[in-house]
Structures are given as C-alpha cells and as structure tokens.
Amino acid sequence: MAKALDMHVQMQEVRVPVVFDRRGGVEFLNRHVNVLIRGVGQVYLKDGSMRSGNVIIDFEPQIASQREGLALSDNGILARFYNNIAAEYLAQDELTLAYAHFKAAILADPGYSPSYSNLAQLYKRRGFLQSAEQLLLHAIALNDDADIALRSLHQLLVSQGRESEALKYLEILQARQDKDPYYWLGVGLHHLQEGNYKKAVNALEHAQALTRGFQEVHRYLAIAYWRAGKQPQAENQLSVLASLKFDDSGLAALRRKIDKTPDDRRLAPPTE
User: Fold this and answer.
1) Which of 67, 69, 133, 149 is the most interior residue, by most CB within 10 Å?
2) Which of 177, 173, 174 lies closest to 187, judged by CA?
3) Ranges assigned E (strand) in 46-150
4) Mean pLDDT per segment of 10 residues, for the chain of length 272 residues?
5) How far apart are CA 74 and CA 109, in angstroms?
C-alpha cells in the first residue's frame, strides 16, 4: 500500500526480548518485523498540522522498539513468510509440507539462517542427525545472531554422547547471552510474568548495564521495581524515560500505574 502511494518505506526486522513459546512440542522464538516510513512530511491533525520525520508502524508496539532495524528485501520477507508456515507445519507433525516450505524459504533467501536451523529440527526428528548437524553449522557460519542454532547444536551433540564437543558450543552461547541485553530483557519479562520480582529486577538491571537509551529496558525496570516495592527506584526509571522523550501517553499511563497504592499494585497486570 505504501509503495502504491509512492512513500519511502522499508519492512525491517527489529530486536525484541528473547521469549520462547512452546506449541505442539516445538519451541518457537518469536522474532519481529515492522514498517519504517521515511520522511512522512506534513501530518494533518484535528487541530492543525505538524512536520513529522520517520514513522514506524507496528502491530505489536508493546514489545517493539523505535530504533531502526535490519532492512529486509522482498526475498527476505518472503523467506520469513515461508519459514513461519513451515514451522507451523512442523508443530503439527506435517513433515512433508514443513520440508517443502523450509526449502522454499532457503531458495527465496539463502542468507536467512533460521531456515537452516529449523530444517535441522525436521531432519533430527526423522533421524538424519549428520545432515541436521551440517545445517546447524551452516546457520552458525551465516549469522552472528545464531543463538538458536548454537543451542540446538549443543543439544544434538549431547544426545549423541559427544559432551566434550558440545561443551564448546555451550560456552560460546553462554558468553553471547551474558553480553546480550535482549536475552536479559527476555529473562526479566519471564520473571515478571511468573511473579518473581526480585529476579526480574536483577535481570533487567543486567540489561540496563549493557545498554544506553533503551526505552523498553527502563520501562520494564520501572514496573519491576514497582512490583518489588522499590518506589524510589521506579520513579527514577520514569525520570530516565522522560529524558529519552518516551511517548507522552505511554509515560503518563505508566506513571499512573506506579502511583497506585500497594493494595492496587497486587491487582494490576504484570506488564504494561
């Protein structure tokens, strides 16, 4: 639609918290895409108009970031689509259809590493362990952001009794995760949802130490502090958000939540 309107747009992949979802015996790691429109120009409002810069359109803004992400080509978008369909078929144990869509994803964009690591799961399920291992090694070689492939390769080697080889990949994975703010953000969100507020604070503080200006880290840390009964620290995070020009309506809603009494706090949902 944007192209038809002659707008300068790009679909982009953006980093989000690392959160797993298990369906049909398959663990899904949800990555995220949105649309960046460059130089929108004049925006007409009810009470006048204003000059706008870039605008991000996102159907799940509560988990997304306002930072610019990895621009996707048409083939990159198509590969992600086929890969998603294939993963759904894999969860339904429709292996022939899953295989066809994984292969279609690889043909659409041979540089998209998740297609290889996901196809490796299908091969592993069918007992083609050597082929699965080669696919995982290829996925790791393709992409610096290959934590899933590293994790899968470690599990595959352990299942074959190759613990000494597996240890190398586990150490690489742990070293990467320790320096990845999105990993710790995901850990913090998991603990928030489970009601483990002290652990949530620890994880989110780790994410904060690894970042500068990440609105989502400060937002969830404010909620974690508030949940843990640390009102001054929560207020401090609100001040940080204000200094980052966090969305006014979002900041106001968060401030109203954090200003609630302790009794109200127990009744509120764990996240914004």
Assistant:
1) 149
2) 177
3) 48-52, 55-57, 70-71
4) 82 77 65 80 64 73 66 93 94 95 97 94 95 96 84 94 94 89 89 93 93 86 93 92 77 82 46 44
5) 9
